[in-house]
Specification:
Blueprint (H helix, E strand, L loop, with lengths): L5 H11 L5 H22 L40 E2 L2 E2 L7
Antiparallel strand pairs: 1-2
Length: 96
Protein backbone atom coordinates (compact mmCIF):
# COMPACT_ATOMS: atom_id res chain seq x y z
CA UNK A 1 0.00 0.00 0.00
CA UNK A 2 1.26 3.45 -0.92
CA UNK A 3 1.46 5.82 1.97
CA UNK A 4 1.27 9.55 2.46
CA UNK A 5 2.74 10.74 5.71
CA UNK A 6 2.73 14.16 7.34
CA UNK A 7 5.95 15.12 5.55
CA UNK A 8 4.45 14.37 2.11
CA UNK A 9 1.23 16.15 3.02
CA UNK A 10 3.19 19.22 4.14
CA UNK A 11 5.13 19.19 0.86
CA UNK A 12 1.89 18.91 -1.17
CA UNK A 13 0.29 21.76 0.75
CA UNK A 14 3.34 23.95 0.10
CA UNK A 15 3.16 23.16 -3.61
CA UNK A 16 -0.55 24.04 -3.63
CA UNK A 17 0.16 27.11 -1.47
CA UNK A 18 -2.52 26.25 1.06
CA UNK A 19 -2.36 26.20 4.83
CA UNK A 20 -3.65 23.10 6.57
CA UNK A 21 -4.80 23.09 10.18
CA UNK A 22 -4.04 20.05 12.39
CA UNK A 23 -7.70 18.93 12.15
CA UNK A 24 -7.60 19.15 8.37
CA UNK A 25 -4.26 17.35 8.32
CA UNK A 26 -5.60 14.24 10.05
CA UNK A 27 -8.71 14.23 7.86
CA UNK A 28 -6.70 14.68 4.65
CA UNK A 29 -4.29 11.90 5.61
CA UNK A 30 -7.26 9.57 6.06
CA UNK A 31 -8.80 10.69 2.73
CA UNK A 32 -5.52 10.21 0.85
CA UNK A 33 -5.14 6.76 2.38
CA UNK A 34 -8.60 5.81 1.07
CA UNK A 35 -7.85 7.17 -2.39
CA UNK A 36 -4.54 5.33 -2.62
CA UNK A 37 -6.24 2.12 -1.43
CA UNK A 38 -8.62 2.43 -4.40
CA UNK A 39 -5.65 2.67 -6.77
CA UNK A 40 -4.06 -0.39 -5.18
CA UNK A 41 -7.29 -2.30 -5.83
CA UNK A 42 -7.33 -1.14 -9.46
CA UNK A 43 -3.76 -2.40 -9.91
CA UNK A 44 -4.99 -5.93 -9.11
CA UNK A 45 -7.38 -6.00 -12.09
CA UNK A 46 -6.46 -8.11 -15.11
CA UNK A 47 -6.63 -5.78 -18.10
CA UNK A 48 -4.52 -7.81 -20.52
CA UNK A 49 -7.50 -8.41 -22.87
CA UNK A 50 -8.83 -4.86 -22.75
CA UNK A 51 -8.32 -2.76 -25.88
CA UNK A 52 -6.79 0.63 -25.00
CA UNK A 53 -8.83 3.71 -25.90
CA UNK A 54 -7.57 7.20 -26.61
CA UNK A 55 -10.95 8.78 -25.98
CA UNK A 56 -14.51 7.94 -25.09
CA UNK A 57 -15.58 6.62 -28.48
CA UNK A 58 -14.36 5.18 -31.77
CA UNK A 59 -16.64 7.45 -33.82
CA UNK A 60 -15.05 9.79 -36.33
CA UNK A 61 -16.15 13.27 -37.29
CA UNK A 62 -17.64 13.38 -40.80
CA UNK A 63 -17.37 16.69 -42.62
CA UNK A 64 -18.12 17.72 -46.16
CA UNK A 65 -15.56 19.10 -48.55
CA UNK A 66 -15.35 22.87 -48.81
CA UNK A 67 -16.81 24.28 -52.00
CA UNK A 68 -16.11 27.62 -53.57
CA UNK A 69 -19.32 29.52 -54.30
CA UNK A 70 -18.66 32.56 -56.48
CA UNK A 71 -20.95 35.50 -55.89
CA UNK A 72 -22.87 35.97 -59.14
CA UNK A 73 -24.28 39.44 -58.68
CA UNK A 74 -22.06 41.81 -56.76
CA UNK A 75 -24.31 44.73 -57.67
CA UNK A 76 -27.18 43.66 -55.40
CA UNK A 77 -27.60 45.81 -52.36
CA UNK A 78 -26.30 48.96 -53.94
CA UNK A 79 -29.83 50.33 -53.89
CA UNK A 80 -29.60 50.31 -50.06
CA UNK A 81 -26.34 52.30 -50.24
CA UNK A 82 -26.63 54.63 -53.22
CA UNK A 83 -23.64 56.75 -52.22
CA UNK A 84 -20.03 55.59 -52.35
CA UNK A 85 -16.73 57.15 -51.42
CA UNK A 86 -13.35 55.69 -52.45
CA UNK A 87 -14.93 52.33 -53.39
CA UNK A 88 -16.64 52.07 -49.97
CA UNK A 89 -20.36 52.19 -49.33
CA UNK A 90 -21.38 55.38 -47.58
CA UNK A 91 -23.89 54.95 -44.77
CA UNK A 92 -25.90 57.66 -43.07
CA UNK A 93 -24.46 58.96 -39.81
CA UNK A 94 -26.18 57.75 -36.64
CA UNK A 95 -24.37 60.07 -34.21
CA UNK A 96 -24.80 63.81 -34.06
Amino acid sequence: MAEIDKKNLKHLSELARIKISPEEESRLLKDFEGILDCFEELKKLNVSNVVPMTGGTNLKNVVREDEFNAVKDLGKGKEAFPETKDDYLKVPSIFK
